[in-house]
UniProtKB/TrEMBL annotation:
Enzyme class of the recorded protein, top EC level: lyase
Database matches in PANTHER family: AMINO-ACID AMINOTRANSFERASE, AMINODEOXYCHORISMATE LYASE
Keyword Lyase belongs to the record: yes
Domain of life: Bacteria
Keyword entries, A-Z: Lyase
Family matches, as Gene3D superfamilies: 3.30.470.10, D-amino Acid Aminotransferase, subunit A, domain 2 (3.20.10.10)
Top-level taxonomy: Bacteria, Bacillati, Actinomycetota, Actinomycetes, Micrococcales
Name this protein carries in UniProt: Aminodeoxychorismate lyase
Organism: Arthrobacter jinronghuae
UniProt keyword Protease, yes or no: no
Spans traversing the lipid bilayer: none
Enzyme Commission identifier(s): 4.1.3.38
Stored InterPro entries: Aminotrans_IV, Aminotransferase-like, BCAT-like_C, BCAT-like_N, Class-IV_PLP-Dep_Aminotrnsfr
Sample GO molecular function, one term: 4-amino-4-deoxychorismate lyase activity
Length: 295
């Protein structure tokens, strides 16, 4: 079951629409050019998690694309409407509302119209509990850009959450066809970047100091809201924090590596390119609890 609510200035709380029938013009630039941005966030029992961080990131993505965004309060109201409709439909027996995936989408709109097309859609969240406890196998994939490309070539839109995710999906198909579950991109100059839909986090303990690390943002990666929430909670619990740069050897030398994202949360990486990584159930539980509390 999918709930759909368009942002529409004539409807202050959003305009609900039937997700089961065609709703977009075929000359919408989001469809014809992938020209737009999106956000995916989790809602638990009808309450969105860290909506402010997602709306902030959507504003940053919009700025990188020079894209006009509907006002923030219009998003907040449309999200509330969509979640209420989803809870209602679930209570009527057509699905489970407990964990829902909320997608916010905005395109550059119909060609020539000059106004964006924007909507909120809500579906039941996929169950990732097995990956969270058992972990995943990962392959390192070359993204083909060096770690300075984002600053040198802003038109590549590295670091924006654009609708052009065909490359990310192709990476996932590639690793799955080669016996793994997920990917970690590396830059052409050998730095660790991010997963196709996740942020890389690693933990290490040296001389009694426990540190969480993540690749540096200026290397052209998306600013992860889950990683950020985890880091803030971990810092309050006494962890040191580090922000790269990281190379693949850092992953192999860590006490644990995770992929962090809003819907799947924290998934431990059990092997990279067939090389087993250290895994501690206690550490996995500790970081999962920290991330959960932060959210
Ligand atoms: C490329 C990429 N990096 C990182 C993330 C993780 O971001 P967040 O934790 O805000 O979901 C995502 C989320 O989909 C992503 O697509």
């Amino acid at each position: 079951m999918t709930v759909l609510v368009f942002l529409d200035s004539a409807f202050p709380d959003g305009r609900p629409a039937d997700a089961g029938v065609p709703q977009l013009m075929i000359n919408d630039l989001g469809v014809t050019r992938g020209d737009g941005i999106f956000e995916s966030l989790l809602a638990v029992d009808g309450v969105p998690r860290k909506p402010g961080a997602h709306l902030d990131r959507m504003a940053s993505s919009a700025q990188l694309l020079d894209l006009a965004l509907p006002p923030r309060d219009a998003w907040e109201r449309a999200i509330a409407t969509a979640l209420a409709l989803h809870t209602e439909a679930s209570a009527a027996g057509t699905g489970s509302a407990a964990r829902a995936a909320v997608k916010l989408v905005v395109t550059r709109g119909v060609e020539g119209a000059g106004t964006p097309t924007a909507w909120v859609q809500v579906t039941a969240a996929p169950d990732a509990s097995r990956q969270r406890t058992e972990g995943i196998k990962v392959l390192l994939l070359d993204r083909g850009y060096d770690s300075l490309a984002a600053a040198r070539a802003p038109w590549l839109l590295l670091g924006a959450k654009t609708l052009s995710y065909a490359v990310n999906m192709a990476a996932l198909r590639y690793v799955r066809a080669n016996g793994a579950d997920d990917a970690i991109f590396t830059s052409s100059d050998g730095k660790v970047l991010e997963g196709p839909t996740s942020t890389v986090v690693l933990a290490r303990e040296r001389n009694g100091v426990r540190t969480l690390l993540t690749p540096e943002r200026k290397s052209g990666i998306l600013a992860g809201t889950t990683q950020d929430a985890l880091f803030r909670a971990a810092e309050a619990a006494g962890w040191e924090l580090g922000y790269g740069p990281l190379v693949p050897e850092d992953l192999f030398a860590a006490d644990g590596v995770w992929l962090a994202s809003s819907i799947r949360l924290l998934v431990p990486v059990r092997s990279i390119d067939g090389r087993e990584l250290p895994f501690s159930e206690a550490l996995n539980t500790e970081l999962t609890k920290l991330a959960d509390a932060a959210l």
